[in-house]
Amino acid sequence: MAIPPLSRRDLDFLLYEWLDAESLTARDRFAEHSRETFDAVLDLSADIAMKEFAPHNKLSDANEPEMLPDGTVRLIPEIKHALDVFSRAGLTAGQFDESLGGMQLPTVIARAAMAWFQAANASTSSYPFLSMGNANLIVAHGTPEQVDTYVRPMLEGRYYGTMCLSEPDAGSSLADVSTRAEPQPDGSYRLTGTKMWISGGEHELGENIVHLVLAKIPGGPAGVKGISLFIVPKVLPVTGERNDVVLVGLNHKMGNRGTTNTLLSFGDGTYSPGGRAGAVGELVGEPNKGLSYMFTMMNEARIGVGFLAISLGYAGYLQSLEYAKTRTQGRALDNKDPSSLPVALIEHADIRRMLLAQKAYVEGALALGLYCSKLVDEQDTGEDPTRATLLLDVLTPIAKSWPSQWCLEANSLAIQVHGGYGYTREFDVEQFYRDNRLNPIHEGTHGIQGLDLLGRKVIMQGGAGLALLAETITATIERGRAAGGLEAAYAEQLAAALGRIVETTMTLWADGDPAVALANSSIYLEAMGHIVIAWMWLEQALACADPDGTPKSGDFYDGKRVAAQYFYRYELPRVGPQLDLLGSLDRTTLDADPAWF
């Protein structure tokens, strides 16, 4: 029997016992829903993920997309079959408006549902993941005609979507984008240029691919201020002509191999729609505001990438847990009888250490991902959307990067628990690691997220972002102090770490020298991430008690408590030396001459 890649019990705890997702049904947008409809979506997602996505995970890894001589891509047929089942179930449209054929699900439920697919098959889940983000952007910034033309078919599963930012010589440095968009008399644009690392950029899974492309209109401002956003379909919907978007080649990745990753050429003359040169594009919104529009999709994708890292880490944890319970090897340290039967791996303390580390990482990260998802619901339907938006802005770089680092470490530990078997392709955990290794890179590397967090988010609005985060964490600390016991001890430890990082932030910016302040921003990101996950674990520990403070009983709650204990004793102390380094305003990396390397 296949091992489920996620724990439904954990999801129920986080959604209902902690976040009270059921209370969202009191809001107008979600009034047609109930705990029963939420559970039905989660059950359906788990069922389809296990039956249609998980079975071809290793098959798609072993049979990468192949570029054919005619410029098309061959994928294994199981991918399209699974995605057709996904779209027929209405899951692509889950959180969209009923007027668009959606279910108007809360984001927190939709994210939890999608996590099943990400855990079961990271590659196949990427196609609808990108399409949903693409559709959300067009709904937010496009015209009603663009929504009707492109979004409705995407939500029906007939079209798929991409995001085209990077170029061969302009990866994360979007100011250097060179793709051009020439305005045409009919109001359209003709695009020329190349885009690199475009996931889902070419395939035959649907009738069309809707590319969202960053490009510059001649005569616009320099740098990022001159970037505009365009819809460039593979096939022109009105005429049925092939647009001048051509697959140049496929990138061959270490993991996540079932998702096509492409180099695309726009307007190279292979096709000439309407008898003219250039790929036909439609402007989204206003000229020169493309990057701000694209951040609608990018921020959604960053949380989604965090969820992908969480899901892969979780899947590996559960497989290594099952292996540790069933695989026998060695004997207890005080057992000197060589004729006695070996014990299960989980009987060894070091194995339990590695399992506890995985549990602390993946369950702490899942809590953060769902917390951020509920903030989206608060932003869209809550009483204080400004507060929710500010807190979400601060947490987004952490929600992307912390799981990408530490759930990858969970995958490494899952391999270690399996021993030599874990390093073979016969077991899933080696693929989980390879699939997860991409997540610290795409949608903004750790370095970019660190710069965003320390250089923008914690200091924006005169430090309002950091102040709000500290205020929110402090409210949990006060509840922990009132609870007494270990929770009170954790609260004091968290309060000390929080106070130190606030003080360190002020120290870093005291002299106003960005080069010094940001030299170790990745270290700052990691330290802040550990503090935020410690907060998530204190929240979970508090949720393991009834409203009157009586501890809930049972193995599940005891497991939560010991994972919280592990994080506070083994993980949060890592922050101290990091804050020491940051507070010293160390210049080692700044002063290292490139000639010395």
Please summarize what this structure is:
With about 600 residues, the chain is of the alpha+beta class. The chain is about 55% helix and about 10% strand.
Describe the structure.
With 597 residues, this protein is of the alpha+beta class. The protein has three domains: 8-159, Butyryl-Coa Dehydrogenase, subunit A, domain 1; 161-288, Butyryl-CoA Dehydrogenase, subunit A, domain 2 (Beta Barrel), CATH 2.40.110.20; 445-589. It contains 19 helices and ten strands. It has helices at 8-18, 35-53, 57-62, 77-88, 107-120, 122-141, 144-155, 290-326, 349-381, 385-418, 429-436, 446-457, 460-483, 485-509, 514-518, 521-543, 555-571, 575-583, 588-591, and strands at residues 66-67, 73-74, 159-164, 180-183, 189-199, 208-216, 227-233, 245-250, 261-266, 279-283. The strands form two sheets. Strands 3, 4, 5, 6, 7, 8, 9 and 10 form an eight-stranded mixed sheet that branches. Strands 1-2 form a two-stranded antiparallel sheet. A hairpin with a 5-residue loop joins β4 (180-183) and β5. It starts with 7 loop residues before the first helix and ends in a 6-residue tail after the last helix. 50% of the residues are buried. The mean pLDDT is 96.
